[in-house]
Design brief:
Organism: Pseudoduganella flava
Strand order of the largest sheet: 1-2-4-3-5-17-6-16
Strand content: 15-25%
Oligomer: single chain
Largest sheet: 8 strands, mixed
Structural class: alpha+beta
Bound molecules: zinc ion
Helix content: 25-40%
Order of helices and strands: HHEEEHEHHHEHEEEEHEEEEHEEHEHEH
GO molecular function, one term: hydrolase activity
Pfam families: M20_dimer, Peptidase_M20
Enzyme class: hydrolase
Distance between the termini: 7 Å
Number of helices: 12
InterPro entries: Amidase_Cbmase (IPR010158), Bact_exopeptidase_dim_dom (IPR036264), Peptidase_M20 (IPR002933), Peptidase_M20_dimer (IPR011650)
Number of strands: 17
Radius of gyration: 24 Å
């Protein structure tokens, strides 16, 4: 017999209470959370979530990089699980919701299914990934990155914090160095709920963000080299002023982004002037360029345009200009089936919604390399995160969790 689950809703108060209880571990005076990856506080947070998982009847698997998978059996346990998850580590001045919401929303989905005795054909899993924030140990999104093979377990183990402690030692010390080989764990579909970390939903007065993709980024160092000289005796036509040439390139970064709306982004955020003296014509200026967009094709066009503009400016001015690409992350389009499940669950529940492309990285990017994946965003106050004042409304968190519930049920199939 197939149960009808149309009217099924999660318990928003229970979700909120769980968030507030977890937020007490590492709570800061300003109302935020400081629970850095693989510290004693991280262990306490992990222990609490694992205890809640066990109490909800889930079995626990830990892999060698400390990713934790909590599993609710399906009626056909041979099927790959429909998974949801995120992270519970935070920034040094982190908030209560970033990551934690994605994990506890998954737990709330399982608790709701338990309350109503609902079985699913595919198993359901709630995961939390090690060191998503990358604050204590680099690289970011470490657990999901090792899981999908973006870098090796040895590379991750060797990462050191400022005191010289390694990921391998710290995982062992807190008791979360598991046995399972990372990635040796099939996933049928992956969902991640997260606060938006941007202002778009709040500005548009929407409750749910359907996330079709995560932006890619291209980072450059640009160095303009001229000649230092005295600001007084040197006539204007005999100068090789690196600052004035840099000042021609900088507005072009913004102009390029504006030529590729709505997701083109262009930022110059860092600048060094040599010798940085009031009465010396600058001999060298170095600055950063950050270009982003949602498709490889558009990001490549932006790359071609900045490259051509810099070449032309070098020819026009006769100064030496070096443009070096120092980082590239391709855009991550999410899977149409998973995005579709989020979209139809949102429509069924009647929440005001819009598409929001993520400008920040998430574990879902790495999960997407292995399984159909997608994300659900809810608004956060003033779009602020990575800050102790990070805030979100209980009703929005509840709505996002209801969307997660129905989207996961569509994939896992109620029996
Ligand atoms: Zn996060």
């Amino acid at each position: 017999m197939t149960m009808t689950t149309e009217a099924l809703r999660i318990d928003g108060k229970r979700l909120w209470d769980a968030l507030m209880e977890l937020a007490q571990i590492g709570a800061t005076d300003k109302g935020g959370v400081k629970r850095l990856a693989l510290t004693d506080l991280d262990r306490q947070g992990r222990d609490l979530v694992v205890r809640w998982g066990r109490e909800a009847g889930m079995t626990i698997t830990i892999d060698q990089i400390g990713n934790v998978f909590m599993r609710r059996a399906g009626t056909n346990d041979a099927l790959p699980p429909v998974m949801t998850g995120s992270h519970i580590d935070t920034q040094p001045t982190g908030g209560k919701f970033d990551g934690n919401y994605g994990v506890l929303a998954g737990l709330e989905v399982v608790r709701t299914l338990n309350d109503h005795g609902i079985r699913t054909e595919a198993p359901i899993e709630v995961a939390f990934w090690t060191n998503e924030e990358g604050s204590r140990f680099v690289p970011v999104m470490m657990g999901s990155g090792v899981f999908c093979g973006a870098f090796t377990l040895e590379h991750a183990y060797a990462a050191k914090d400022v005191d010289g402690k390694t990921v391998g030692e710290e995982l062992e010390r807190i008791g979360y160095r598991g046995d399972q080989v990372p990635g040796d764990h099939p996933i049928g579909a992956y969902f991640e709920t997260h606060i938006e970390q941007g202002p778009v939903l709040e500005d548009a007065d929407k409750v749910i963000g359907v996330v079709p993709a995560v932006m890619g980024l291209s980072w450059y160092d640009c160095t303009v080299t001229g000649m230092e000289a005295h600001a007084g005796p040197t006539p204007m036509h005999l100068r090789r002023d690196a600052m004035q040439v840099a000042a021609k390139i900088i507005p072009e970064v913004v102009a390029i982004a504006n030529r590729y709306p709505p997701y083109g982004r262009g930022t110059v955020g860092m600048m060094q002037v040599f010798p940085n003296s009031r009465n010396v014509i600058p001999g060298q200026v170095k600055f950063s360029i950050d270009l982003r967009n949602v498709s490889d094709e558009l990001l490549n066009r932006m790359h071609d345009e900045i490259t051509a503009f810099v070449d032309q400016t070098a020819r026009d001015t006769g100064l030496d200009i070096k443009l070096e690409r120092v980082s590239y992350y391709p855009p991550c389009p999410f899977h149409p089936d998973v995005v579709g499940a989020v979209r139809s669950a949102t429509a069924k529940l009647g929440y005001p919604a819009m598409d929001v492309v993520s400008g920040a990285g998430h574990d879902a990017i790495y999960a997407a390399r292995l399984a159909p994946s997608g994300m659900i965003f809810v608004p956060c106050k003033d779009g602020i995160s990575h800050n102790e004042i990070e805030d979100a409304q209980p009703a929005h968190l509840e709505a996002g969790c209801n969307v997660l519930l129905h989207a996961m049920l569509e994939r896992a199939k109620v029996v």
